[in-house]
Amino acid sequence: MSNLTAFVQHKKLTLTHDGKHIAVPATGSVFLCKEASSPFEMQFDDQAWFPFDQGLGFNLGPDRQFTKLNFRALNLDTDTNLEFYVANAAVGDSRLTITRDENRFQIISFMAAKTLVKGFAAASINAGACVRFYGTGGTGLAGAAYSYRKSIVITNNDPAGDLEIYSGVSAATVRLATVFHLQAWYLETNADIWIKNETAAPIACRVCEVFYPV
To answer: What pLDDT does 2 receive?
Structure first.
């Protein structure tokens, strides 16, 4: 069995909530904290303490190494669990990131989903008229090229008249907002949106929708 230090070392430890520090013998130039149940403090080679958290890391460069790491908890109510890597060269991590709140999670992807932009060709709504904007795609709905809507922007270009925004399954039933003249309104939703002109004159407007493709 080799006695040489591994190129990458993986370690887990628990910092007690009494603030007692834990020393970890570890030789390397790169430190990467994969997980931490709470923010914590650390130091290397008896240098000054500094705050740290999950997802953070540092690289001392090719000409410098640490040989000892010290850790202590900042959370004085519960213990802090750590998982980290020590290496002798930069370590990349392309895995998904999950927030530490167990009731909520956020997936961060390095590849943005493709989207399609859909405009409103009429660019005007007649007096007393109501126009429906479908949030899902398909024949007779938003269109065959669209899957579902990501967001919608409604711009009222009229110098005086206001537009009313409604939601509803088969009719405009719930008043959501007012797009005042020379103003814009934005919402992220794939629900159907109805735009009503309740004035006595046509209102020029623009509607921009962002859809995910099929």
So the answer is: 46
